[in-house]
């Protein structure tokens, strides 16, 4: 026994030392100043602090901090301070050591980073939505103190995703969901393109294993033909670049499984219909660094002599880098096979920035000194502004900030010719708010390229925008519906709220005056009479009075003076009860007495069978999952288990905010219970088509039409059918058959 233990300890020891040696080797290969001593000290300290603890996979715990430090070093390109912080990142969280201990041993900088990492540990998100927003806020605030905190946090998450297989399924969904919702966009925003792609692919692989596999298989099956296209397409380009005497490398860029799947989902197309799986990347070494930009264009000119360029698809990220630092020249060329192929032209430096983001900038700075993060600084500033103006709803805050994480940019010009970077899809009003709050709040319209446009006009790259204002203009509640930037949305909401508070106060004064003048006591019974009369809740009523959209008069006087014997209490408590009755009520679920959520073993997937579906496990109304869909369970506040599709937007939010209430779920149905599903059909209107569609469906023995609506407009028809099916297979078969009908263009499940 003792011997076995000793052998295991020795094995652990050599495993750990090898991993650390690999880390050191990777570090020594970088351009950073060589501070091996402090890194070794951090390693030894972390190793003894985590001694005896193992990860779920069985490995010694210290393997995790070593792996995170390796990512920080090799994949993000950071130096010794970050490597030490990564090695120590779980010490304060998981052991008895304090931040002071770290500070005494490693100095205040490393201690501060470890402190930041400890504060945001346990995932960005806590158990409750509000705690989550609080954590998110913390994250962003720490981030603006030292960006390295978030870079190390991303490395930590990447390693956890790489080793997710050893976690329980319900934890997997929580972690994968959070990763997709927040870490991948963050990585993208920081320019960590490679890591962003890996995070997305890993999340996708755990949430939709079968679809991931299918795409992988198809990619593998089509690889040979892509190689052929690549060779054929790049041969003349190589010849031309050789003639120019350039030092270069040409690579094939294959779209990642997640982006392929995402495109299939959003554009409702098949794998075969995605034309840009292959792109070509030219990475060159500039002859002189100041010639870098010109050389990109020289290459562009040279290759567009070989292949015809697409006129609308030149993307100049060289002169106008993206906010995350990305620089490259993108062109789309017509191959000899008649296929559009995107070519990305970058220098070696630009390529490093594209893969490693802001961290790569440091590599190109002598001595690794101060970082040039102009754009990043601006972004952090925007986020600080939003945080200074907190909104009551936690999820709102998160969504607002996410708006900015996801957005890609366009360039617009001020009347003076200054360039401003704005997110895609932004409106003239967003632009106004981006310049100044006053400009936004008093904006009445804009001139885009000298033409008058409304506030809601969406801007395009290259637009010249002049904002028109009027002092009389006030912020309108409807504005939040069309602005797309976080800043504008936050400003509008906060100003509206302030105005409403003022109006409510004025409303109270007006109401008091009214009662005084009529000589009626202002008590809650009397006030409630008015609320009932106007069918408004108190706050809304007062605001309406304050804003003078409601004026008290004869009717109110009568209502108050009338002697009402019977107060309609129901109406009083639920002024909108009439309306709410029209909304279909959720079915009453009879939960068997024997069942209790507390009895569920949350570590095991729940099994959905005909006997328990919609009795114990309720199918979500938002995404209507049916057998065969990738699903998960969510325990709601009433302790009911709701089954959502994994990609349902509501489930996505739950994954990030309520991860601890998730359950893994699998189907085990036996085709005895029918489910409704909706299918949308589009095509060219044709005599007899409707007949053909119904024929096809009725021939499918497993499928019954429940509802059918078809609209025809200028020769195009759009139909929606609701059908009864047993499972996803039935729908897929039905869709395939429907697609084969002549003149049917697209068939999708909705
Ligand atoms: Mn960790």
Structure characterization notes:
The protein is an alpha+beta fold. The protein has 5 domains: 2-162, Hypothetical protein af1432 (Orthogonal Bundle), CATH 1.10.3210.10; 219-363, Beta Polymerase, domain 2 (2-Layer Sandwich); 378-493, Beta-grasp domain (Ubiquitin-like (UB roll)), CATH 3.10.20.30; 494-563, no CATH class; 675-749, Alpha-Beta Plaits (2-Layer Sandwich), CATH 3.30.70. Helix content is 50%, strand content 15%. It contains 29 helices and 19 strands. Helix 2 packs parallel to helix 4 (80-87), helix 4 (80-87) crosses helix 7 and helix 8 packs antiparallel against helix 17 (374-388). The protein is globular and about 90 Å long. Residues 123-131, 365-373 and 563-593 have low confidence and may be disordered. The structure holds manganese (II) ion.
The tally of strands reads: 19
Topology-level CATH name of the largest domain: Hypothetical protein af1432
Percent helix range: 40-55%
Distance between the termini: 60 Å
List the bound ligands: manganese (II) ion
Quote the beta fraction.
Answer: 15-25%
Q: Roughly what is the average pLDDT, rounded to an integer?
A: 81
- What is the CATH H-level superfamily of the largest domain? Hypothetical protein af1432
- Counted up, domains total 5
Distinct helical segment count: 29
What are the low-pLDDT stretches, counting only 5+ consecutive residues below 50? 123-131, 365-373, 563-593
**C-alpha Rg, in Å?**
31 Å
In the sheet with the most strands, the strands line up as 1-2-5-4-3
Q: Architecture of the largest domain, CATH level 2?
A: Orthogonal Bundle
Structural class, from helix and strand content?
Answer: alpha+beta
């Amino acid at each position: 026994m003792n011997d076995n233990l000793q052998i295991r300890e020795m094995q652990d020891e050599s495993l750990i030392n090898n991993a650390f040696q690999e880390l050191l080797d990777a570090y020594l290969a970088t351009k950073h100043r060589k501070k091996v001593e402090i890194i070794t000290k951090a390693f030894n300290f972390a190793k003894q602090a985590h001694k005896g603890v193992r990860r779920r996979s069985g490995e010694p715990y210290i393997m995790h901090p070593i792996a995170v430090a390796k990512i920080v070093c090799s994949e993000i390109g950071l130096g010794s301070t970050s490597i030490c912080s990564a090695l120590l990142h779980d010490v304060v969280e998981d052991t008895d050591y304090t931040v002071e201990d770290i500070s005494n041993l490693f100095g205040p900088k490393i201690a501060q980073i470890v402190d930041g990492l400890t504060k945001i540990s346990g995932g960005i998100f806590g158990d409750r939505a509000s705690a989550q927003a609080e954590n998110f806020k913390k994250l962003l605030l720490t981030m603006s103190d030292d960006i390295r905190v978030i870079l190390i946090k991303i490395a930590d998450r990447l390693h956890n995703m790489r080793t997710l297989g050893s976690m329980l399924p319900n934890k997997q969904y929580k972690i994968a969901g959070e990763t997709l919702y927040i870490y991948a966009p963050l990585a993208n925003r920081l320019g960590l393109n490679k890591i962003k792609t890996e995070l997305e692919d890993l999340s996708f692989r755990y949430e939709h294993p079968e679809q991931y596999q299918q795409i992988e298989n198809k990619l593998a099956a089509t690889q040979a033909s892509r190689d052929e296209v690549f060779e054929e397409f790049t041969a003349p380009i190589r010849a031309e670049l050789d003639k120019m005497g350039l030092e270069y490398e040409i690579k094939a860029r294959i779209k990642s499984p997640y982006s392929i799947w995402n495109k299939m989902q959003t554009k409702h197309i098949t794998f075969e219909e995605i034309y840009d799986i292959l792109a070509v990347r030219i990475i060159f070494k500039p002859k002189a660094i100041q010639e870098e930009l010109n050389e990109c264009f020289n290459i562009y000119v040279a290759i567009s002599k070989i292949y015809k360029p697409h006129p609308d698809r030149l993307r100049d990220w060289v002169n106008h880098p993206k906010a995350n630092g990305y620089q490259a020249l993108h062109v789309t060329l017509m191959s000899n096979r008649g296929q559009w192929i995107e070519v990305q032209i970058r220098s070696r430096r630009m390529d490093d920035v594209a893969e490693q983001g802001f961290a790569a900038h440091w590599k190109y700075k002598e001595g690794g000194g101060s970082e040039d993060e102009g754009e990043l600084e601006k972004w952090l500033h925007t986020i600080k502004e939003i945080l200074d103006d907190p909104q009551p709803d936690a999820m709102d805050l998160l969504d607002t900030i996410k708006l900015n994480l996801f957005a890609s940019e366009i360039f617009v010009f001020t009347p003076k010719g200054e360039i401003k970077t704005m997110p895609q899809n932004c409106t003239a009003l967003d632009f106004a708010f981006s310049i100044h709050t006053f400009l936004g709040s008093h904006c009445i319209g804009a001139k885009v390229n000298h033409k008058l446009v409304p506030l809601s006009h969406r801007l395009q790259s290259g637009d010249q925008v002049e904002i028109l204002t009027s002092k009389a203009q006030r912020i309108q509640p409807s504005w939040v519906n069309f602005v797309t930037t976080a800043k504008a949305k936050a400003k509008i909401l906060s100003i509206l709220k302030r105005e409403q508070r003022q109006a409510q106060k004025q409303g109270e004064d007006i109401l008091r005056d009214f009662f005084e003048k009529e000589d009626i006591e202002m008590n809650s019974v009397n006030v409630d009479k008015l609320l009932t009369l106007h069918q408004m809740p108190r706050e809304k009523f007062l605001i309406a009075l304050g804003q003078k959209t409601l004026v008290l008069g004869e009717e109110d006087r009568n209502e108050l003076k009338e002697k009402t014997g019977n107060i309609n209490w129901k109406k009083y408590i639920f002024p909108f009860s009439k309306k709410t009755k029209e909304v279909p009520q959720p079915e009453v679920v009879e939960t068997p007495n024997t069942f209790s959520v507390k009895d569920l073993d949350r570590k095991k997937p729940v099994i959905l069978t005909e006997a328990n579906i919609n009795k114990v496990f309720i199918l979500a109304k938002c995404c209507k999952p049916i057998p065969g869909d990738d699903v998960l369970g969510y325990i709601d506040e009433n302790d009911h288990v709701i089954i959502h599709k994994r990609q349902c937007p509501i489930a996505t939010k739950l994954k990030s905010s309520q991860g601890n209430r998730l359950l893994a779920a699998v189907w085990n149905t036996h085709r005895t219970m029918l489910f409704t599903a909706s299918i949308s059909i589009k095509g060219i209107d044709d005599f007899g088509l409707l007949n053909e569609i119904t024929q096809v469906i009725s021939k499918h023995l497993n499928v019954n039409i429940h509802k059918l609506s078809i609209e025809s407009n200028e020769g195009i028809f759009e139909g929606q059918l609701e059908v009864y099916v047993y499972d996803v297979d039935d729908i897929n078969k039905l869709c395939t058959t429907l697609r084969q009908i002549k003149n049917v263009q697209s068939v999708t499940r909705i």
